[in-house]
Amino acid sequence: MSGPRPVESDCTEHTELSTALRELQELRTAMRTRPAIEQAKGILMARHHCDADAAFAMLRSASMRDNRKLSELAACIVASVATVVDGQRPAGKPCAVETGTT
Q: What is the DSSP letter of 100?
């Protein structure tokens, strides 16, 4: 039978668990937002005749400039294309990348 575990061991395990949970949450977020980001990149590539790296740079630049999450901006771009078919513009803040303010 072993004695009580040292407090340092408990703290280390707690820190490792917290780190693992945070990484798990970040991975889940990335998996949830990646499709919209990839679709937005494709839209920008088609509209601006650029490659994937340039399209992502446009997204990143607009995201930082407007202080918006990149995934939020990407979703806005995708929604704007989806609603063009219906002839309606999505509600909310306009997508700066698509308004030509990049």
A: T
Set out the domains of the chain in order of their start, with CATH numbers. Answer: 7-84 (1.10.10.10)
| Token pair listed for 43 | 């839209």
DSSP letter (8 states) at residue 74? H
Provide CB contacts within 8 A for 81, sequence distance 6+.
43
C-alpha to C-alpha distance for 17 and 11, rounded to whole angstroms: 10
- Alpha-carbon dihedral angle through residues 46, 92, 63, 84, given to the nearest 10 degrees: 0
Model confidence, pTM: 0.66
Residue 26: φ, ψ to 5°:
-65, -40
Number of Cβ within 10 Å of residue 37's Cβ equals: 20
**Tens place of pLDDT for every residue, the chain, 102 residues?**
566 666 567 788 889 999 999 999 989 988 998 999 999 999 999 999 999 999 999 999 999 999 999 999 999 999 988 766 556 655 555 676 654 544
**Contact criterion met (CB below 8 Å) for 60 and 45:** no
